[in-house]
Amino acid sequence: MASAYDFDRIIPRRGTGSLKWDKFPELDPFWVADMDFTSPPEVLEALQERVSHGVLGYAKPHQGLMDALLDYMQQRHGLSVDEDEIVHLGGLVCALSMIARAIGKPGGQIMTCTPIYPPFLGVHHDADKKCLTVPHIEVNGRWEFDWDAMETAVTPDTSIFLLSNPQNPLGRVFTSEEIEKLAAFCARHDIVLVSDEIHCDLILDENKTPHVCAAGLPEELQKHIITLLAPSKTYNIAGMGYAFAVIRDDSLRRKFAAAKGHSQPEIGCLSYYTAEAAYRHGEPWRQELLAYLGKNRDTVTEFVRTRMPGCVIPDIEATYLAWIDCRALGKENPANFFEKEAALYLSDGAFFAAPGHVRFNYGCPHSRVLEGLEKMANVIA
């Protein structure tokens, strides 16, 4: 059946103030997690309708947004959430910074597992804390937690664990057993588990790898859990700056809110209305997006495994980001190699605490995916 949405259309973005396209305009960009597709038409219509009102003053979350969030949590995650358990945010990176300042004492530790989304490795600087990293391990071709190493590394000064689920950049969707074991680990060591689930609506086969929302874990664990969510990656509205936290424990929620101070910007009215429209009307678009991304994922996986000797790619279960191990190429910095030789801008694995790797963004028309892969293969050859 033909798609109702044209994901094949090439949309010129150069010269539009796009971080992805205009940071290095001489390079072909396959880096930052930003898709080259238009947002769902209902989102654009809601934005235009709100702009047509003509008054764009200070905003607060309106009831339509609240209803959409509660419906989303119920329909998507099977969870009944109260309005007062939701904290509205201008983005998830600033939320990580707030959490770093809110939980634990100065000089304490924030634990995470690598490779990982770069801000996870930097927010400790905002709170005079230390970053404690434990590498994921590969077991039968599948990346998993190294439970023994985590138990060895944790100390009484460790107050926060930062989780990316689905995992960026590995593309893993962690199982219920893994999430429950991690939550129990955190509770046992009096650590707050911060579950960043920004990619949870980008799971490519949820029948095979269902998402486990941390906000749905048993009530006795919730005093140690903050769940972070956003429509931004899924509906390609990251520039609108809206996210939210689900914090079910009153004491933990107050502690988190107190760290905000005066450091967070106001959330604009347009951000609230785009989020509402995405959650309320975006599901048909999301389903077709997932089908398209699944085909792109299959193309990238097969291409790397057959046309790029010296490169290794894991099975990708979620996101539109491919993690490619290039260490066997013998290049000191593969990202720099592809930049110099193929004029490609890829995400450098060193920023994820994994030198020798690159991250390739396939959230773009299929023809663009092939162009980028061919350029990589040509310079490898």
From TrEMBL:
Keywords: Aminotransferase, Lyase, Pyridoxal phosphate, Transferase
Presence of keyword Protein transport: no
Enzyme class: lyase
Stored CDD domains: AAT_like (cd00609)
Signal peptide coordinates: none
A Pfam family it matches: Aminotran_1_2
InterPro entries: Aminotransferase_I/II_large (IPR004839), C-S_lyase_PatB-like (IPR027619), Class-II_PLP-Dep_Aminotrans (IPR051798), PyrdxlP-dep_Trfase (IPR015424), PyrdxlP-dep_Trfase_major (IPR015421), PyrdxlP-dep_Trfase_small (IPR015422)
Cofactor: pyridoxal 5'-phosphate
Occurrences of domain Aminotransferase class I/classII large (ranges): 35-374
SUPFAM superfamilies linked to this entry: PLP-dependent transferases
Record-listed E.C. numbers: 4.4.1.13
One GO MF term attached to the UniProt entry: pyridoxal phosphate binding
NCBIfam families: C_S_lyase_PatB (TIGR04350)
Annotated family: Belongs to the class-II pyridoxal-phosphate-dependent aminotransferase family. MalY/PatB cystathionine beta-lyase subfamily.
PANTHER family the UniProt entry points to: PROTEIN MALY (PTHR43525:SF1)
The name this protein goes by in its record: cysteine-S-conjugate beta-lyase
Protein's organism: Oceaniferula spumae
